[in-house]
Amino acid sequence: KQWYQRRVAITAGISPALISIILVASLVKQCLHPAEYSVYKGCDPLNPTAAKDWTEDVPFPWWAQIIGAIMVMLPVLPMPIIAAWHFTRQILYRNDNTNSASIA
Length: 104
Hints:
about 70% helix
């Protein structure tokens, strides 16, 4: 039973760490290369078959990037809050047990 508890504890620690690493890497990538979308410029009447020249890639406006960042962070935000609560609870519970043992 102990090996299973150790395995669960290791897995429980690895998953949030990997998700956090992926999130940070994604945010760094977004900062270095902002997301873009295609804007229609119009076709060239002299060369109507050059469709790749009809659009231009432009970055999203600042407010759209903020909304996107909020949408990405909302599902991930509870992870550090719950982890902090869990570890704080463990420390308080451990201190509670040592204090009650020394009093008795």
